[in-house]
Amino acid sequence: MLLKVNSILIIQNELPEMNILTKGVVMTLSQTENKVLMAQARESLTGNWKLAIGTCLVYLLLAIGISYIPGIGFIAQLIIAGPLGVGISIFSLSIARNQEPKFDQLFEGFQNFDVALGTYLLMILFILLWMLLLIIPGIIASLAYSQIFYILAEDKNIGPMDALAKSKQMMQGNKWKYFCLGLRFIGWALLCVLTLGIGFLWLSPYAYVSYAKFYDDLKVAGPELS
Fold first, then answer.
1. Average pLDDT by stretches of 10, the chain with 226 residues
2. Which helix (H) or strand (E) holds 178?
3. pTM score, whole prediction
4. HSE on the CB side for 77, CA within 13 Å?
5. Dihedral angle computed from the Cα positions of residues 39, 183, 189 and 187, in that order, rounded to the nearest 10 degrees
């Protein structure tokens, strides 16, 4: 129980209330409430639900289904997870920004395959190294690196280490808020289980676009990070 309380306090130290300067680094803090971001996501999805559901279904089938291929499933999943993560981020940002989403955006991450793959593998490596200490540092690391696919989606010239560093910088002061955004989908996920999983067809795009809204809120909240 003490470990659980301490872990919540560690993450909650990142209270997102204003832009501040810490150790010479500008912290860009999310200002929009999570429930508002989710409402904005639903609004952006209006008229795009069919395309979003179909695209997310293909994404999940590829990202998860490929792991069941005997012998090569695990390696294949590691290889395509990064580019697909960039692709679904490009697609989600298009919806979040009320632009014209396209199914083929799901595969645009393969245009910068080496960077997407390298960034993903480094992220997994760093998270695993932190988890060797305790589960909580691993969770915090995963939150810190949560924006890498959006960063890669927007910057075709950034390298793996720079993308990881930029995500860490963007998430300073925002980890707890992002963590709470994820918690808001747990109840919906439980309801989806009661529908034999069919509800996830709607929940998945809802979550992806909400997270894209979170990313854009970070960018709007303060000065552009370099």
1. 46 45 57 94 96 96 89 91 97 97 96 96 94 86 96 95 95 94 94 91 96 93 52
2. helix 175-183
3. 0.85
4. 15
5. -80
Which amino acid type is present at position 48? N
pLDDT of residue 169: 93
Dihedral (Cα; 223, 116, 56, 102), 10-degree rounding: 70
Q: DSSP letters of 53-93?
A: HHHHHHHHHHHHHGGGSTTTHHHHHHHHHHHHHHHHHHHHH
Cα atoms found within 13 Å of the Cα of residue 187, Cβ hemisphere only: 3
89-93 — which CB contacts under 8 Å span 24+ positions? 89/149, 89/150, 89/152, 89/153, 89/212, 90/153, 91/52, 91/55, 91/208, 92/205, 92/208, 92/209, 92/211, 92/212, 93/150, 93/153, 93/154, 93/212, 93/215, 93/216
> Both tokens of residue 196?
């034999």
Q: What is the pLDDT of residue 57?
A: 96
Is the separation of the CB atoms in 87 and 108 below 8 Å?
yes
Residue in 117, 101, 111 with CA at minimum distance from that of residue 48: 101
Contact 41, 96 (CB under 8 A): yes
Query: Of all helices (H) and strands (E), which one includes residue 20?
Result: strand 20-22
Both tokens assigned to 158:
């950034």
Q: How are beta strands 20-22 and 25-27 bridged, if at all? A: antiparallel
pLDDT at position 18 is 41
